[in-house]
């Protein structure tokens, strides 16, 4: 088994089918699909059951958030490489085949982590921007620069550094990749492999605070550096919000004039 895809779900009836459809249309014997459900009470479990012929493992029980669910999935996964998706994320057509070819081309190389690029879209599916670039420690130590959605983690990475720290509720994926510091063997796959919808808790001031907490812990930043990072991240966040509002207003006025 080459790639294990782990999806954490909780009351995801309205959005999960698009995610699953994007996977099963390109699933092969080299791809394993696991769903870890947090005890959904809507129609999620019924929906999952309708895809049972394509899903290799399902667990449904209460959990302590998405990272707890992903940890449960890691323990069950059989793949050499592990991918994490949200219930509302979607793989691009052909993404898994391209990943498999890329992995084969790396045979013999030591690699902990493969990141790619993703489309960041609004609720209507319109592209906002493309996210993701090559991992570089000097940039990564201060902020999340790679696209974690649909990236690949070598199983050996978890053997070395452990599982996700569930004390982090939003950015535990960033914290896990910080543990090897500049020794992380990361590779960049310059393809758009997935799309994710804007919004959610990962795009919030709470996420900024947690990122700063992670940076300060792993880098032992001085007080001045902590203040600088905090102010810079908030400035970037609010500037992006303003830019999105201006784009939305411009789009509305454009169509209102037709």
UniProtKB/TrEMBL annotation:
The keyword Transferase applies. This is Glycosyltransferase involved in cell wall bisynthesis. Keywords: Transferase. It comes from the Bacteria. SUPFAM superfamilies: Nucleotide-diphospho-sugar transferases. One of its GO terms (molecular function) is hexosyltransferase activity. Residues 4-129 form the Glycosyltransferase 2-like domain.
């Amino acid at each position: 088994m080459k790639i294990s895809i782990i999806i954490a779900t909780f009351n995801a009836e309205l959005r999960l089918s698009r995610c699953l459809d994007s996977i099963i249309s390109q699933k092969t014997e080299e791809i394993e699909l696991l769903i870890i459900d947090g005890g959904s009470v809507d129609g999620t479990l019924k929906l999952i059951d309708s895809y049972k012929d394509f899903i290799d493992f399902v667990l449904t029980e209460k959990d302590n958030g998405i990272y707890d669910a992903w940890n449960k999935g890691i323990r069950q996964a059989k793949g050499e490489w592990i991918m994490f998706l949200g219930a509302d994320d979607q793989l691009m057509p052909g993404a898994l085949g391209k990943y498999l070819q890329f992995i084969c081309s790396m045979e013999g190389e030591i690699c902990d982590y493969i990141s790619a690029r993703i489309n960041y879209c609004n609720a209507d599916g319109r592209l906002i921007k493309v996210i993701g670039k090559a991992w570089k420690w000097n940039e990564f130590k201060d902020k999340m620069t790679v696209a974690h959605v649909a990236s690949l983690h070598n199983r050996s990475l978890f053997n070395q550094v452990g599982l996700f720290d569930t004390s982090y509720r939003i950015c535990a994926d960033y914290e896990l990749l910080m543990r090897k510091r500049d020794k992380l063997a990361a590779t960049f796959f310059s393809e758009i492999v997935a799309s994710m919808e804007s919004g959610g808790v990962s795009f919030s001031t709470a996420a900024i605070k947690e990122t700063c907490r992670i940076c300060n812990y792993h880098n032992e930043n001085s007080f001045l550096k902590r203040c600088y990072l905090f102010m810079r991240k908030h400035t970037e966040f609010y500037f992006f919000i303003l830019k999105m509002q201006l784009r939305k207003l411009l789009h509305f006025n454009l169509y209102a004039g037709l």
